[in-house]
Amino acid sequence: MAKPENLPDMLRTRLERRRKMFRVVLASLGVTVTAAIVVFFLMARSTGPGGGARVLYAVAAPDDAAWLVEQQLPQGTQGGEDIGKFRVLHQQGEQLQVGPTLSGSAIAAARAGNDTLLVSTASRVLRFVRKDGSWAQAESTGLGLNDTSAWPVTAELGGNVWLIWLRGKSVLVRPLASPDAEPRQVFETASPATRIHSTTSSGAIWLTLLEGRTGQLTVLAFVPSQDDKGVVAVDVLRKSPFPGAVARSSIAVMGTDAATAVPVVAHMRKDDTTRTWSIAALVAGKSPEGEWVQVPVPPKTVAVGAIELTNYLVLSTHKAELHAWYSDGGDTKFTTAAWQNPTELRWSEPAKLAIDKSGGMDAMVWGGILFGLALLMTSQFVWLILNRERPQDRAISGMLRGTDAARPAKAEPKLVYASGPARAMALLIDLAMTSPVVILLQGLYGYRWEDAYGFIVLVSLGSLETGILQVVGASLVTLCVLVMYSLFCELMWGKTLGKALFRLRVVDMEGETPSPWRVVVRNLLKIPEMIHWTVLIIPMALMLFSGRQQRLGDMAGGTLVVVDVIPDESPDDIDI
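The structure corresponding to this sequence follows.
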C-alpha cells in the first residue's frame, strides 16, 4: 500500500509554485506591453508619416505624361529633413517607369522645360533629366539657406527657375541661378510654421501657404521678374484665403489667363475626424476674391468614415483635364476629369498604379500582430486577477513555513493605501507644475498644446483629427518631463508636490523609504502606461483589482502609494 504523501508539503509546493507563476506572468505582461508599444511605433513608421508613409508630388509632363516624385518618410517627421528616401517616376497612362532612388526628404517637385525635373529638399535642388526614355540625375545645387524651416520650393516661369522660401514670416523669391540677387518679399504669413507648395500655370506662379498651427490656407498667384540690373520685382495677381482650418492640401490651376484662372484645392480639414479629403474650386463670385465651391472627389472603395493610415490626394492639370492621384485602401489610384462645370465634374474610372506599398509590412499584417498582442495582454491580465495572492494564502504560507513557531512573525505594517481619485488629483497638480516646461518645449518641437496632454481622455478625444500618432508624439514630451520631475521629488522627499498636498507618499512593501531603483522603475513605466488614453485603461484596471491600488509600475518596482499621516487610533476607518 502506497504511503500517503505529506499534505503540508504538497500545499506549500503549490503555493510557492503559484507565487512564482504570478511573478513570471506579471513580468511577461510587462514584456507584452512593451512589445505592443514597439509594434505600434513600427507600424506607424511603416505605414505613414502624419497618416501616410508615401507622399506624392505630381508634375504635368509633355506628351500626355506625368512626372511623379514618391517620398517615403519615417513616422513623426514633417519633411524638410535629410531622412527617408524618394524616387522619381514617369507615368504614361497606367504604365510607370521608375527612376533613381535617393536618400533624403523631397519637399516639392517642379518642371523645368520638356526634359528636366527639379526636386527640392531642405538644403538643395536636384535636377533629373529624362533622355532616351530613362532618368539621370544631372546636378545638385546647394541653396545656402541654413534654415530647416525655410521650406524651399521652385517654379519655372518666363525661362527662369525661381526659388521661393520662407524666412521668418516672410515668403521670399529670387532666381535660382542668382544666389547674390536681393530677394523680394511676396507675402507675410501669420507665423513662421508655414508650408509652401507651388505650381506654374496660366502665366503665373501659384502658391498655397499653409500655416501649421492655425490651419489657415492662403492661395497666392504672382509674377516675378528681374531687370537688367538684377533687381527682382513681384506682381501679385491673386490672394485668396481659404475658409476653415486645413491640415494638408494640394493645388492645381485650370485656365489660360492668370486673371480668370480657377485654382482647385484638395484639402483635409483639421476638424475632420475621419481624415477624409475634399476638393474646392475658387470661382468668380460676388466678392473680389471670388467664392469657393465644392468639387466632387474621386471615387473610393474604402468606406466613408474609415480611417486610413496612408492618406493623400494630389492634383495636377493637363490641358483641359484635371488629374488626381490618391490613396484608396493602401493602393495608389489615378483618375482624370474633363473641366467644365466644377460642381458637375465627372471622374473617369480610376486605374490602380503599380506603385509599391510603403517600405514595411502591410497595415493589415501590423494590425494582426497588434491584435494578437492585445489578446495576449488581455489573457495575462485576466490570469493575474484570478490568481492574485489573497491574505489567507499569505497566512497559510506563513504557517507552513513555521515562522509562527520558530520566531515571532513580523507585524504587518499598518498602511492605508491611497485611492485612485486622490492619486489622480495629485497627478493633475503635478502636470500643472510641469506645464511651463512643456510650453517652452512646444516652441522647439512644434506640437499643439492639446496634443501634449493627449493621454487624458477628454483632451485626446478632441484631438483625433491630427492622428493618434501625433498625439502620442506630443504626449511623449510631456511624460518625459513629468517622469524627470517625479524622479527628482520622490528620490529627495518620497513625494511630489501633488502627493504632498494630498498627504500621500511612496513606500516599499514594508512601508519604508523605497530604494532608488524602485523609484526609477515605477516612474519610467509611467511612459508606456500613460502614452495614450487607450493604454491608460490598463493601469487604471490594475489599480482597481490589485487590492493595494498598485499600477504596473508599482508592481514592477515593489512600491505602494500610501497616506502619509495615519492617526494611531482606528487607521482602518480612514476614507481617502
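The first strand starts at residue 54 and ends at 61.
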